[in-house]
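quick one, 316 residues, struct below
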Amino acid sequence: MGDGRARIAPVIVVGGEALVDMVPGAEQTNDGLSSLVPRLGGGPYNVALAAGRLGTPTAFLSRISTDHFGRALRDRLTASNVDISMVQEGVEHTTLAVVALAPNGSASYTFYTEGSADRLVADPGPLPEEVTVLCVGTLGMVLEPGATTYETVLRREARRGVLTALDPNIRADLIADADAYRRRFASWLPDVRLLKLSDDDAEWLAGADDLDAAVKSWLDAGVDAVVLTRGGDGLAVHTGSVTVSVPSAPVDVIDTIGAGDTVQGALLSWLHDRGVGTLTGLGETDWRELLTFAARAASVTVSRSGAEPPTAAEMV
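---
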């Protein structure tokens, strides 16, 4: 286990992978290839960073390598006020993601995951009683045997009334059987209160179904709120009684790495700061304020290279 300790018992636990994004650098080879610069990341890792930097007592649940990258991953968590006492250690290598950037700053990924440390995470057992929020997603819910571990934790914590959040953050190249994954995704929904996903991921999960019908089916399955990130078009939320949209905050975009993860971390931080334990009591005004806060946090991240969520001071 890691040796990090938060000053305040964590109320948010984020579970999933920690990896290194190899981001294009400024230099080019004679073959026209860009140099690659390592950036610490991973969807759940970035969510934990975002919530921790915003001042919310947060812990990260994962298995991180003891290699050079792994040590840097742990150091960055503690520097961002994230408790690493739930982080397990492994001698296996750190997962790598090679990033390609489009002219508009959007990112695509090629992953190197075979035999990596994070997918071997063990079930930690029931989370501490102080924990009121659990967030999982991305590769952690795809790559076995870790996916089964996180699924077990999700179901167990949902049963005891924890506010559960999921961002599937689809990486289609790593999903061998799309239909099987969609069925598994559907099986999680009764245990998920907040479902946050990009519009592209929502359309992929909807498959042949109409997106509006798919969102309704996710709500009918038990989800309290579906938040959609729509890139430059902002954010939207759908609940059983409310639909709210807000624009994105204007900013010069460097790249979009970690933008959606920042949204998720900001959503969870806002809910914690206001003592919201259930989403069903939030009205249109609440959701508009929440989504605007999350959009503003994401605007800071996309104005920087790599996933660099804002601190609380930068959100004042």
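Residues 1-7 have pLDDT under 50 and may be disordered.
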